[in-house]
Protein: Late embryogenesis abundant protein (LEA) family protein
Organism: Actinidia rufa
Amino acid sequence: MASHDDQGDRAEEAKDQNEEKTGHMMDTTKQKAQEAEDRTKESTKQTGSAAKEKGYEAAEATKEKASEMMEASKEAAQAGKEKTSGVLQKTGEQVKSMAESLKQSIGMGGDGGV
């Protein structure tokens, strides 16, 4: 029975670690996008209208890349949640099965219901 608790604890820990990594990735991505945008703005001030247009395009490309990375992080977090959910459901089913077997072995399982 303790191994089921351990399995649930490991699944919860994996979920927490995944969420922490996702949050860190999102923060890093936002920070890098902001830094790129700041550099682009500074460069634009110095180089005139042609550079201004290129800087805007670079900032937009950076924002798009950041958005893609955040979406990938969200998908990874969702996959982790689904995996954790599956592990917890399986553990619950195993506990239920063990309880039913125990009831039957000690003579309490008359109608088959738990």
